[in-house]
Amino acid sequence: MDRQVFAYSGILEPRPGEPGNLPLVEFALDLGRTRWLWDGAVRLCYVPTAVGDDPRAIAVHEQVFGDREDVEFSVLRLFPGPNVPDVRKHLLRQDVLLVEDGSLVNLLAVWRAHGLPEILTECWEEGIVLTGAGAGSQIWHAGGPTGSLSDQLEPLADGLRILPFSNGAHHDSPRRLRAPYRRMVARGELPAGYATEDGVGLHFVGTELEDAVTVRPKARAWHLQPNGRGGCTETPVDTRAL
Questions:
Q1: % the chain with pLDDT above 90
Q2: Is 229 helix (H, G, I), strand (E, B) or coil?
Q3: SS percent in the chain: helix, strand, coil, step 5
Q4: What is the DSSP letter of 143?
Q5: pTM here?
Q6: CB 197 within 8 A of CB 185
């Protein structure tokens, strides 16, 4: 059974006529449907830890997915404590785990307190699709640039390391996000990795990049690595439109 991660950058401010983030989530749901040779509802668990289990974020996802006949929707809340009797059992019966954007630092701290890194690695090994945007994208990697420690971007090389690369989101923000990520890779503060512009997702099978998709014309993904001369080489990744 394939071990899969779909890491994407959400569209923070969709322009008129743009589809928003739903097509990217649908791509992940389609990956989850391929796990079994049956046409039942795909089991989707939304994990909003990075926003402190914000009821507003949960309500939005319940509105979008809660009444769909092709989706069996659930939420894993960890504040003030788990809302399911057995977290491991609940997560291992899913097809797709959707992790919300937010604070990468807080996400890691809470998950480690509840033993989720080991459980989520087991989920990945069982073929459950791991997906999310922003912090929900970076979490599966070795780390990435984050603003959740201070008002400045800092390197965090303490991700779950299911994927051995670093990861950057919103890479079409040249001064605020792109340039700092390049510097971190150049200095060796973060390992070589991949970055996505808003609306772009990367599909990994095992630890190999299988596909790059976008819901925005001309938006793309990038591979970053040290160039051996104190700088960073940034190579575009072939990206196809959904």
A1: 86
A2: coil
A3: 30, 25, 45
A4: B
A5: 0.95
A6: no
CB 135 within 8 A of CB 103: yes
If you average pLDDT over residues 38-53, what whole number do you get? 93
Its domain, for residue 45, covers: 4-241
Q: Do residues 184 and 155 touch, judged by C-beta distance below 8 A?
A: yes
Sort strands 144-146 and 240-241 into parallel, antiparallel or unpaired. unpaired
Q: What is the pLDDT of residues 169-219, one digit of tens each?
A: 999 876 678 999 999 999 999 999 999 999 999 999 999 999 999 999 899
Is the predicted pLDDT of residue 37 greater than 90, yes or no? no
Q: Where are the alpha helices (DSSP H) in the chain?
A: 22-33, 55-65, 87-92, 104-113, 116-125, 135-138, 179-186
CA-nearest of 45, 11, 235 to 131 is 45
59 alpha-carbon distance from chain centroid:
20
Number of domains within the chain: 1
CATH assignment of the domain containing 52: 3.40.50.880
Q: Write the DSSP symbol of residue 51.
A: G
Quote the CA–CA distance of 223 and 165 in Å, as a whole number.
10
pLDDT for 140-156, tens place per residue?
A: 999 999 999 888 899 99
Peptide bond into 80 cis (omega under 30): yes
